[in-house]
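PROTEIN DESIGN WORKSHEET
SECTION A - STRUCTURE
LENGTH: 248
TOKENS:
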């Protein structure tokens, strides 16, 4: 085989291996779903975190090494969206029903439907990210939200309200920062997300009820996200009038 052809084949196999890394995320998602069906919430949380880590790792690798022209049959972006919809939406929706995060009545069904439906619309957006890497609308991160609600144990009524509110935010134009890509407040974003993931993992292994102090630690991540989102909104409001000022 000519050297040029051999090089192309080798490079294509390398690109396919990156896609294969992405696909391992769906395997972790499957393991999380099996844990949900087996009524093993701790295992489900662990596998959801594994899927989250895979999603966080494969993106930078793909952006650095993957060439779209080498594997035209497979679109890594679409592949990532498909896997994210399963691991970030479908599995958490099953989790919230199985483990009583919402009530098993009509309101609970509406909450689950709002998670699945609003997320499907969010993933189908043609302008899902701004040019400076902010997501338009709440980015369907139910893999973090629903286990958090389960641990906080604030009651089905509160959980349904928060779920419906976030579902509305999913379809809004409010912008949420990408954890890695957004430069502004990046350190705070990464540290708070890391604290959130670690606290989720640690507390999911507890056999007893989560105490007040632990709940406050668990809320560091969500509060940081809310703060960074508010910061973006305020900056956008201040910047908007300046855009209408004519340049002299």
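SECTION B - SEQUENCE
RESIDUE ASSIGNMENT:
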């Amino acid at each position: 085989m000519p050297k040029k052809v051999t090089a192309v084949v080798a490079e294509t196999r390398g690109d396919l291996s990156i896609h294969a890394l992405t696909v391992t995320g769906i395997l972790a998602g499957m393991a999380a779903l099996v844990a949900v069906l087996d009524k093993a919430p701790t295992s489900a949380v662990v596998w959801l975190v594994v899927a989250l880590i895979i999603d966080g790792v494969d993106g930078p690798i793909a952006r650095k090494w993957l060439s779209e022209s080498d594997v035209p049959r497979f679109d890594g972006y679409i592949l990532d969206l498909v896997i994210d919809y399963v691991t970030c939406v479908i599995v958490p929706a099953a989790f919230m029903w199985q483990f009583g995060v919402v009530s098993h009545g009509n309101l609970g069904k509406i909450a689950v439907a709002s998670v699945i439906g609003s997320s499907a619309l969010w993933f189908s957006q043609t302008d899902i990210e701004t040019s400076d890497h902010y997501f338009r609308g709440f980015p369907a991160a139910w893999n973090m939200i629903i286990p958090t609600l389960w641990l906080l144990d604030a009651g089905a009524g509160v959980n349904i309200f928060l779920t419906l509110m976030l579902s509305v935010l999913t379809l809004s134009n409010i912008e949420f920062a990408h954890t890695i890509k957004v430069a502004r407040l990046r350190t705070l974003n990464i540290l708070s997300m890391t604290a959130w993931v670690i606290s989720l993992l640690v507390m999911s292994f507890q056999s007893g009820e989560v105490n007040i102090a632990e709940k406050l630690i668990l809320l560091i991540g969500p509060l940081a996200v809310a703060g960074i989102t508010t910061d973006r909104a305020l900056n956008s409001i201040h910047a908007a009038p300046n855009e209408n000022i004519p340049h002299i």
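SECTION C - NOTES
Residues 11 and 184 are 35 Å apart (CA to CA).
The beta strands are 134-136, 175-177.
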